[in-house]
Design a protein that fits this description.
The chain contains 9 helices and 20 strands. The chain has 456 residues and is α/β, with parallel strands linked by helices. The longest helix has 20 residues. It is globular, with a radius of gyration of 23 Å. It starts with 16 loop residues before the first helix and ends with a helix.
Length: 456
Amino acid sequence: MSELTYKQPHIATQIDKAEQVAAFQFCDAYKDFLDKAKTEREAVQVTVQMAEAAGFKPFTWGMPLQAGDKIYYQNRNKSIILAVIGSAPISEGVRILAAHIDACRLDLKQNPLYEKEELAYFKTHYYGGIKKYQWVSMPLSLHGVVFLADGTKKEVCIGEDDNDPVLYITDLLPHLAQDQMKRSAPELIKGEELNLLIGSVPVTDETDAKCLVKEQILQILNEKYGITEKDFRSAELSAVPAMKAKDVGLDRSLIGAYGHDDRVCSYTALKAILELENPTHTALCVLADKEEIGSCGNTGLESTFMAYFIEDIAETLGSKARVVLSASKCLSADVNSAYDPTFPDVFEAQNSSFCNRGVVVTKFTGARGKSGSSDAHAEFIAEVHHLLDANNVVWQTGELGRVDLGGGGTVAAYIANLNVDVVDVGVPVLSMHAPYEVVAKLDVYMTYKAFEAFIK
């Protein structure tokens, strides 16, 4: 019976102490990446730095390519593709690791600055699926870019340095919240109540009877960045948690941080391709934008930027894009929801993923009868399973919650539309989409090993 039945083990029972130490050390660098890459723009910047240090060169159309070449392509500073050219003909397909580098956040509106009762605020519009009440009463930092009237680009980062001020969204004290607490959970904090508190002292000018806090804020921004109020209309500014990635648990086995979804898969995929040498098949690591709002726009994977890149390298290497894509295989590198014993009713335990049981292979996502899912076919699932077993990768299967209750989407559906074999593979996450999410270090490491095996 022991040969017929199976129970998913804890990773710690499957690896030795040396590999556990290696896993924890691997995650130290991951935490540093999280602190440097809190927006998709910053993630692209850090990725370029890491790629160039590893010998990758910018790709331009028509440049000669040969086996072993390492190239990268930036798409509008918000998504990026890295590639290592393989020794096999490109017509045999490429191996793709596709993750997303955007995360839930609060974006500033186009005309955000206002003052009310001698307090200055920024208006926001939330990005992605969040519980709005989780974003109040916590320190927030401001990241992004502003283009001035003369075209100058100014990068903004306020709240990350220990000496920086932070921004803040107020909430009612319990004594006065009787009516607020009668609201349903989605309305406990409304979208138009997610206003960032940014100042409280007015400009002091004896010749002007109108002493405005708003003017003081504009003066501060103008002195530091050259910004005027009109410049907000050509800005991309986002508020994110002003908290560092930290070890969680007395045994330091977990990581708490903003943006695990999906930078935990982005980082592990990135590390795998940066360390890749002389693969058989050409390998790609695609780090995309806009997944949290449907992969839309020309920096999300619903667009054609990845297909165009593959077309370019296919033509250079003597093949056609449709031939290459039809022979290609992809791991859609995205997270799954880890089983939470505090809230067991929303999970179906037998088909859930768990912390410390390995990288999660998710055959299908979607909701309401698998709607919106790519649903990988059994032949490719079996191929991935055999690959992981052969490389001593501890893995598990999972789905996102009970039938008729959970569900979600990833970039897999858009890659499948290109006639590519694809399945979701990633890290189980506790408190997904919260300002501070949690993952297990051993799962992170097994995900890296899975990606490494796939592109080798």
